[in-house]
Amino acid sequence: MLTNLSIKNYALIDSLAVGFKNKLSIITGETGAGKSILLGALGLVLGKRAESSTLKDTSKKCIIEGQFSVENYNLESFFEENDLDFEAETIIRREILPSGKSRAFINDTPTTLQVLNQLSEKLIDVHSQHQTIELSDTNFQFQIIDAMANNFAKIESYKRGLKLYNKLVKELKALKQNQEAEKEKYEYNLYLFEELNAANLKVGEQEEIEQMLDKLNNIEEIKLNLSEAQSLALNEEIGVQTLLNSLTNNVSKIASFSNDYNELYERVLSLKIEFDDITNEIENANEHVNFDPLELEKLNDRLQLIYNLQKKHTVNSVEELLLLQEELSVKVSAVQNSSTIIKEKEDEVQDVATKIDVLAKNIFNKRQKVIPVLIKKLEKILSNLGMENTRFKFDIQHSSSYFQHGKDELQLLISANKGLNFGELKKVASGGELSRIMLAVKSILSSYLKLPTIIFDEIDTGVSGDVSQKMADIMQEMSMNMQVITITHLPQIAAKGQQHYKVYKQDISNNIVTQLKTLSNDERIIEIAEMLGGKNITSTAIEHAKELLH
């Protein structure tokens, strides 16, 4: 619950601090005294957008702090998920700088407005006069029904399933679109792939063919040089081999005379052995040098095929052609296998749809079951509020469409008087009736939602007399389960509060400021007497005020 509120440099407020207690608290004050300013400041703490125009002194920053007792509301997981320090007495602070920028803190940890809004939804429900419009909002109507039906856990599961379903449907749509697009290119891609596949290309073969062609195209020069080299090596009189034999023979004769000569001999012998091996290879190469015109033609044709493919696909190597072949294979296979892939995705979509359909049907059944109970509670409360002839009808239909909170379509109809047909709420109910209906709804919700605090901003607009007394009784009953803060103009409601605060304006050194104070018992009597009879307080008004308070 809200335990303290501190406001500095906001609108007409210089500095203001007030402590709140549990049960029912009342805030009163003349029109224009600044009650809306108080709610505006609280709204900033709860995450509403800030404007620099709200600063009283534009040269200083505005600071608003709200302290909340949260130990009994199972919020530890929320704090952990958002990297916040959990404190039983949590402090939320907003700072609005003269530049217009604002900062938000939860227990002195900087946070975002999104996180602040999420937390505030778990702390306070601020009901203003315009909020009665929500009664005609289908989402709000579902919230009432689902709170009574204890549907929230199932709805969260449904939402997770719906998110997955929408994701899969999107993927399926993309697959089908891709299939159509690829089908148009399929024949051409298949032709290119089969052409490359038929070429049976191998890594490094282009370089190998080019070397072989270089050899065949220079066969005469190769043959001539090999023959001359063979002659130089093997000539019986002046051939290198004959000379090396003589050299080896001469050195061998002195090898035994010293280690140096022996080492020299071994080196010459090694040279002779290596040269003999080279000579054999030259002879062998010379014998196998043949010109094959068919082989030359075959290699030229193969190389030309590779060149043509490289030119066609604007690449420079066989490796790039093989990479392109692999890419084309993937594209061709994707089209050929797309029907299977699409079928698998369709099955996946259907599987998720079946699961969320079961959840949605379960949610619908629980809604159907609880609606008569809701109608009975609403009509009973409103009967005590002077709307005894009011009747409600919730027309709920289970559809085939997926909505954010299930598959149901809902229409709330009302008949305000006997003999009248049912019509739409906003067309049938007056402003005062809408306020009473909203109070009835909030009263019912307070028994099902564990919300720490609710604030009513003049929900009693348009009612008076006995009805206002009954409205006060309902608020007092609600305050047994939660903190209720009510801004009111009606003395019957003001007298029901356990605490009473007054908002007023004060002239301090020609500076009009808004103030807030807690009223004592005697001050409450005077305030309620003024609400009953105006500024000229009579003894009758005083007695009436005392009667209301007791």
From TrEMBL:
Domain of life: Bacteria
Domain RecF/RecN/SMC N-terminal: 2-507
CDD domains recorded: ABC_RecN
Protein keywords: ATP-binding, Coiled coil, DNA damage, DNA repair, Nucleotide-binding
Pfam families recorded: SMC_N (PF02463)
Segments forming a coiled coil: 162-229
Family matches, as PANTHER family: DNA REPAIR PROTEIN RECN
Protein name, as recorded: DNA repair protein RecN
